[in-house]
Every structure is written in structure tokens, then in C-alpha cells.
Amino acid sequence: MSSTKEFRPVRYAYGVAMALLLGGTAFSVATGQAGAQVAQNAPSAMVPRAGAPSSFSDLAARLAPAVVNISTKQRVPVRRQVDPFEEFFRRFGGQAPQGQGQGQETPQTRETGSLGSGFIISPDGYIVTNNHLIQGANGQGTVDSITITLSDRKEYPARVIGRDSASDLALLKIEGSNLPYVNWGDSNRARVGDWIVAIGNPYGLGGTVTAGIISALHRGITGAGAYDRYIQTDASINMGNSGGPMFDMAGNVIGVNSALISPTGASVGIGLAIPAEAAKPVIDALRRGQRPERGYLGVGLQPLEESIAASLGLPKERGELVRSVVPGGPAARAGMQQGDVIVKVNGQDVTPDETASYIIANTTVGSRVPIEVIRDGRRRILQVQVGQRPTEEELARQSGAVTDQDQALGEEAPVAPGTALGLSMQPLNPQIIRALNLPTDVRGVVITSIEASSDAAQKGLRRGDVIMSVNRQPVTAPAQVLAAVEAARRAGRTSVLLLVKRGQAPEAFVGVDIATR
Question: What single-letter DSSP state applies at residue 325?
């Protein structure tokens, strides 16, 4: 009986953010990029070629100067390491030496950085890259500093002109003139089997040229969203290739390298790039200082899979099912209902390659478009005025998940000193149970705030989790948790066992250290 090894496709985080400890060895990572010298960068049409090129050397030499390396720096807080002598004195009830674990300590931080790629799109120094390369820790804000290094090793500080998390694109600016730059190409003309070239700094090895063919178009990796539509290539795209361009054989940018799918984290021939048709409008809007415009229906959609299609008596993968309609949104105003199947948008068939989300996102905001739906076996035409897609924060509030939880738990406040385990808690009630999507029969106390530096937070507990028992004793009030922790401390225990419930997931036991205060 033979055994097989299962490889699960893993979406590689867009690019690579690598922690660079001060004084440590910097392991560079950059993305496949390409550029062109100013005098050689006139827009050109795609020229069909018969067979494989004899060499890519002329193309690489012409494009390489507009390739840039992007390095960032940011200081992030780190958890203080427990002093072994402090732990010794704590365990045996002694007094810790002066200065060890006493009083307020200055928060410890560590310098981290990321290395990636970008490409210059104008002689005065506008640079395109991925948003995740310059996004701050935990997805908040931006990094502290950005340095751009050109192929001639000249370095420039960069500032962020604009960024867009939905498309994972960002626009940077350096102060310069007569810089080498590249032009956008037409990704709509790209075909499976076309040759492409990528130039970059994978693994920090320095300028590297890779070539391959387009393996697939309209490749989806998340199954939803207006930007889940990538160009797939077998050209080597490795850690650090994010933010760099994908070129056609005329030297025009037809994609922005953004991800890879691999069971190992290294290239296995499935690299993914945001097509120029989607990237250029976003970059143009950011350059104008505007928020990118995207069409919006105000519906939740899911694919028409075989089992669903069969139950509706429809062919599979020809349309999308409306699972929810946002009250007051464009679709709701046009009369769309939950359970409708969208089969055409503005005359275009809805398929896995041409999803309703993608078609609408690229439709002019404010325009009226006919949407053909099937409802109860009958086809209907709805006239919908396309709205402007809200921000990601607004969409989160719209979904109700954040709003309901915040309304139920109240505003998150700092944990009061001396609180057990670094947690603030309150009893469950029907409103909280509904807001947190909990089973109706669950019993316990809900965490309303948690100290980021506490052991509970380090073990993965978070606001909204429900503590059902402490040391296997059921609890329904915060006072019972406090009493159980104090009893454990008096018994000489250094930790307590919590039974925790999160949403509809099965309960799990978590051992949490008892804080010394």
C-alpha cells in the first residue's frame, strides 16, 4: 500500500516582511521587478513572436534601471522576557531584587523591517508597489520609514502618496528628475502561453531576471471580491517578489506581482500578479489624491455550486446566488431579493471568470445598468444605479459583526489594575449571546477587555471570548472567576485552566499563568 504526501496550496502572504534585529544579519527579500530607461521607454504595442525568444538580455538591460528595492523600518513592542531570578523569587514567595519586575518599566521595542520591490512609472519618481510592504504592524497605519534603492545603488527616502488595502496597491514618491521609468501595458490583450519577464531581488540576492509564460488568466484564490482576479505565471516568483512588475515582451507592465501559491513557501511555478487593467485605475486615483472609485451593489454573493444549482434547477457555475441584501443599498432599492440568482450584469454573463463583483466594481459609479436575475424560476430585469463601494471599515460595520459586538459589550476600556489574569469581564445576557453568535444555552462570563501584555492575550484569548469554567468549576459571574484564581494562588498554583468558547467553534481548554501583582 503506497503512501502519498498531501500538498495544500497556501497563499503566500503578499510579499515578505522580515524582522531585522538591530545588530543582526539583514536577510534581504525583494520582488520581481522591471523598468526601462527614459530614452528607451516609448509606449510600444505587443509584437507577436513565433517560438521562444533567442535571448531576453536586451529586454532585461533596457528594463532593469527602473526596478527599485524597497526597504522599510518600524519599531514594534515586544513581550518582556521573564528574568529567571525574578521567577525564582516569585515561586518561593521571596522579594525580587530591586529593579527586577518592580515599578513601571519602559516598554521594550524591536526594530523590524521588510524588503520588497516596486517600479518607477514617471521620470519625477512615482513608484508603484504593494500596500502590505509599507503597511504598519497589525495592519494599522504605515511603517516609520521607507528607503528606495535604485539599480545604481543610489538611495532615496520615500513618502507615501496613497495606498489602497482592497487592491493591495500603494503609490510612493521620491524626489528626483529624469529617472528611468516604465509604461503600463494592456493586460486585456494577454493570452495564456504568452512570454513574460520579471526582474527583482528574491531572497535579497540582488537583481535577478526570471522569465516564463502566462499559465492562466482570471485566476481566483479567495473566491470572492473585486480584486480576486490574477494573472498566473510559471516564472519564478519567490519571497520578496511582491510589488514588482510583470512585463510583456514589448517591455510594458501588464501585472504587479503580489502572491504565490506553494506548499513550501518557495516558487513551485504558481506566481500571481494583479493585472494592469485593475491596478492602473487605482494608481491613477491615488496619484490624483483621490479615493479609488469602485462600483457597489450592496449584496452578499456566493458561487452557484453544483449542489445549489441542482436544487434550483439551474446549470452550475452560470450565475451567482444572492445570500444577503444590504438594506437601503443599490440592489435593495432596485428590488433585488435574497435568493435571487444574478446571471447577467449589463449584458455580460456572470461566470467564475467574470464574477458579478468584478463587473460591478469596474462599472462607473452612478451609472444605471440592467441586471438579469432568476427568481422562482422566472427571469427578471432589474435596473440598478451603481453605488460607490464603502471603505473596508464601513463594510465591517455594515456587516453587523463589529457594531453588534461593540453595542453589546460596550466600548473597550483599559483593564483595571489588579484584575484577575489581566481581564475585564461581565456576565452573559441574551443580547451578548446574539451579538457573538453563541449557542443559546451557553453559560459563562464574557471578556470585555484584555491587557495586551498579559499571558491570557499571549495564549490567544481576546475580547468576546466566553470563559465557561475555571479549573473545571463552572462560572457565571466575574466574582466567581476572581475567587477561583485567588483560590488557586493560595493553593500555590502558578496557572489556572480555563474552558473557553468562541462563537460556534467547539470549546477549548487554555492554561493561563496567574499574574503577580
Answer: E
Contacts of 269 by beta carbon, 8 Å cutoff, 6+ apart = 212, 215, 234
**What's the grid cell of residue 313?**
434547477
**Active site positions, annotated:** 132, 168, 242
Task: Look up residue 471 and give its three cell numbers.
Answer: 479549573
pLDDT for the residue numbered 412: 59
Tell me which residue of 225, 216, 286 sits closest to 255, measured CA to CA.
216
How confident is the model at residue 190, as a pLDDT? 92
Contact at 8 Å (CB) between 202 and 30? yes
Q: List phi, psi (to 5°) of 313.
A: 70, 35
Answer yes or no: are the C-beta atoms of 433 and 461 closer than 8 Å: no
CA distance 382 to 334: 6
Q: Where are the alpha helices (DSSP H) in 17-145?
A: 57-63, 84-91, 131-134
| pLDDT at residue 408, rounded to an integer | 63
H or E, element range at 361:
helix 356-361
Q: Which of 105, 106, 71, 101 is nearest to 87 (CA)?
A: 101
- CA dist., res. 133 & res. 144, Å (int): 12
Q: Any long-range contacts for 51-57 (C-beta under 8 Å, 24+ apart)?
A: 52/195, 53/195, 53/249, 56/197, 56/209, 56/211
By the 8 A CB rule, do 200 and 241 touch?
yes
| Three cell numbers written together for 187 | 493586460
Kindly report the backbone phi and psi dihedral angles of residue 85, in degrees, each rounded to the nearest multiple of 5, phi listed first: -75, -35
Shortest CA distance to 69 belongs to which of 168, 166, 203, 196? 203
**Mean pLDDT score across all residues of the chain:** 77
Asked if residue 194 lies in contact with residue 250, where contact means CB atoms within 8 angstroms, the answer is: no
Helix (H) or strand (E) holding 155: strand 155-157
Q: Are 119 and 73 in contact (CB under 8 A)?
A: no
Backbone angles phi, psi at 423, to 5 degrees: -125, 145
Q: What would the mean pLDDT of 19-37 be, rounded to a whole number?
A: 35
Q: What angle do CA 84, 86, 92 make, to 5 degrees?
A: 105
DSSP state of 411: S
Maximum Cα interatomic distance, the chain, rounded to a whole number of Å: 82
Q: What is the pLDDT of residues 179-217, one digit of tens each?
A: 999 999 999 999 999 999 988 777 666 678 889 999 989
Find out whether 447 and 432 touch, Cβ atoms under 8 Å: no
- Look at residues 450, 441, 444, 426 and name the one whose alpha carbon lies nearest to residue 498: 444
Mean pLDDT across 420-448: 86
Alpha-carbon Rg of the chain, whole angstroms?
27
DSSP string across 300-337: EEEE--HHHHHHHT--TTSSEEEEEE-TTSHHHHTT--
Q: H/E element holding 287? A: helix 276-287
**b/e sequence 335-364, b meaning 16+ C-beta within 10 Å:** ebeeebbbbbbeeeebbeeebbbbbbbebe
HSE, CB side, 13 Å, CA atoms: give it for residue 108: 6
What is the amino acid identity at position 86?
Answer: E
Q: What is the pLDDT of residues 470-515, one digit of tens each?
A: 887 899 888 889 888 888 888 888 888 888 899 888 788 888 888 6
